[in-house]
Amino acid sequence: MMPDDPRQNGLRIRSCDECGAYGLRHHWKCSKATRPAWERSEGLQQGSGLTRTPMSRKPSAKQTKRARNRALLRKGVIEEGLTDCEIRWENVCTGRFDGWHHLQKLSQGGSDSLLNMVRACNPCNGKIEDEPLEARRRGWVRSDS
Q1: Rama region for 29: left / alpha / beta (φ>0; ψ in -120 to 50; rest)
Q2: pLDDT tens, position by position, 22-48
Q3: What is the pTM of this model?
Q4: Is residue 132 part of a domain?
Q5: Helix or strand holding residue 102 (H, E)
Q6: Domain range holding 34?
Q7: What percentage of the chain exceeds 70 in pLDDT?
Q8: 59 is a domain residue
Q9: What is the C-alpha separation between 95 and 64, in angstroms, rounded?
Q10: Residue 109 domain-assigned?
């Protein structure tokens, strides 16, 4: 027996009578040879009607309520004409209200009340996340600990 013969391991796999290959693989000159599945497959064709469905979950009732409240607050603030950034971090601020910054994060027990939120542009909000010690010194981050 050949050293790479699968029968040495106790497997019962028949060999091809024509080329001597074991299992499903055949020598390329063998008449029984077939191309591997990935070479035979044409893949998804345009217009085949097959589409991918995104895996997403619906937001919870709590998340939906929070998003609705923030949207109402934002609408009210904009109607009052308060569309500027309150943080005004030098060299990054755009001056335009893009969203809310929570002084105390929700994960640390903060709330969505106006006492815990300030108007912020995206660059200022990012700067607060990037430099938490400086933001705490300036009063833009609070925690109970």
Answers
A1: alpha
A2: 555 555 556 555 555 555 555 555 555
A3: 0.56
A4: yes
A5: strand 99-102
A6: 14-39
A7: 61
A8: no
A9: 28
A10: yes
